[in-house]
Amino acid sequence: MKIGIIGGGIVGSSLYRILSERHEVKVFDASIKTQFPTLIHSLLLKGCDIELASLSLQFYNKYRIKRMDFTSYTLGEVSDDLVSSWREHGVSARETYVDWIGEKAIEAKGGDSLVDIRNLVSVPKEKAKVEISTGEKKATVKANGKDVTEDFDIFVLTAGSWNSNIIDERLPLKPYYCWASLMKGHRRELDKFIVYDYVLGFYSRPAIGIGSPLFIAGDGDIIEMKPPEDGNMRKPEIKDRELVISRIRRRFESRSIYVSGNFCEGTPDMRPLYGRLKDNLYLVGGLNGYGAEVGPGMAMLLEMMIDKGEERKSYILDRFNGIKDFDLGREPHEL
Ligand SMILES: Cc1cc2nc3c(=O)[nH]c(=O)nc-3n(C[C@H](O)[C@H](O)[C@H](O)COP(=O)(O)OP(=O)(O)OC[C@H]3O[C@@H](n4cnc5c(N)ncnc54)[C@H](O)[C@@H]3O)c2cc1C
């Protein structure tokens, strides 16, 4: 089949790698998003998301996407059942007192890594801004104004937070802004370990990964807003910025050097979705704050749908049939 992928971010690039084994695939990307160099992949999720993150891990290993493993510490109430499900997926987890944090935590090895996103998205792409208009059965796709509908058997829309900008149909997706801060402090462990602090409500991850004084931390409220069509980032007002930074500083003496953010996309239940929108158009979206954790897994599910007709009900698009409007909830990677 000839397949056109619209958006060459985490999902689009994963799909390119998987589908081009059996199909003729082209990725169209408007080059309006600057990806963060590395993002967390973690198996320390809940329910069926753990399986999805596990599929992503298989993808990273199969396509030799660079990753750096890190031990993580989870602070706060974590049920024994949840820890058991992490162990079932190969994570070695135990409760221990961590001197440099000054608290008991779940120490997890084999569950967390930083994925080299630039490596992941380095697939061949045609620079083009795509627009989709939909009829009852079929979608018409234009790339830089040129109608390319008949050049492909099917298209997959994977333009992340821009999905709703591109198509003339209402989707159960909403874009939002999310941010993190580069921090400098005394605890060099923070550049060697990942911390999920559910007591004070933030996460921290290495900035470089060598034990430098730098680390990255965040977990502010989501700010509902549309991404700019031209990609020129205009930072919104971040109302809880000082509050979140003060929570980080309460745990680890440090100062914020630079705050940076980008756009994410959520669904009514804050879990990703995939499915067929029109005879010639599929969609994968709603990866909110955990695209590197579950994105390649969603790409694998879509490949199974296209090539074998198999569906994973928990993530199927049809679960939102009839929902007209919704509010964004809490990100699902937070326990
Ligand atoms: C501050 C912050 C920290 C984060 N940390 C993590 C983390 O540690 N771990 C994690 O898993 N996730 C993290 N995320 C979330 C992650 O970045 C997203 O979930 C992920 O990027 C979504 O992937 P995607 O493939 O759906 O879309 P994207 O990666 O956003 O890709 C969309 C692509 O579509 C293209 N596009 C847009 N419009 C058009 C058009 N008209 N035509 C053609 N192409 C178009 C864009 O150029 C872009 O390349 C973080 C997000 C933020 C903002």
From TrEMBL:
Pfam families: DAO (PF01266). It comes from the Archaea. SUPFAM superfamilies: Nucleotide-binding domain (SSF51971). Residues 135-302 form the FAD dependent oxidoreductase domain. InterPro entries: FAD-dep_OxRdtase, FAD/NAD-bd_sf. This is FAD dependent oxidoreductase domain-containing protein.
